[in-house]
Amino acid sequence: MLTGVEDYNPDQIRVEPKFSPDNDTERRAVLQTEAPSIEHFEYADAPGYAVIKVDGTQVQAEIYANLNRQPWKTLELSALLAR
Fold first, then answer.
1. Backbone angles phi, psi at 79, to 5 degrees
2. What is the pLDDT of residue 83?
3. 14-58 residue pLDDT tens
4. What is the spatial distance between Cα 30 and Cα 13, in angstroms, rounded to a whole number?
5. 66 phi, psi to nearest 5 deg
6. CB atoms closer than 10 angstroms to residue 8
7. Which residue, 28, 38, 46, 67, has fewest beta-carbon neighbours within 10 Å?
8. 56 Rama class: left (phi>0) / alpha (psi -120 to 50) / beta
9. Measured between alpha carbons, how far is 33 from 58 in angstroms, rounded to an integer?
10. How, if at all, do strands 48-55 and 2-3 pair?
């Protein structure tokens, strides 16, 4: 799992080695160019799903990994929009 904007860097090409473009140098350049614009970053390679809950202006995502009955992570999406 990768967590935090510091993990959004050119070395991330190792996570998905066959991703487009197929040239490592180009992919590293794209990631480096995008990095200053990233405010939140998390990556987990697992099957799962999310349940979105809306209550007035509050929006929350419960993210489930694999077949677990407990959320892997809960995100307050409305807080991210308030930035």
1. -70, -35
2. 64
3. 888 777 777 888 888 998 999 999 988 888 888 899 999 999 999
4. 10
5. 55, -135
6. 21
7. 67
8. left
9. 33
10. unpaired
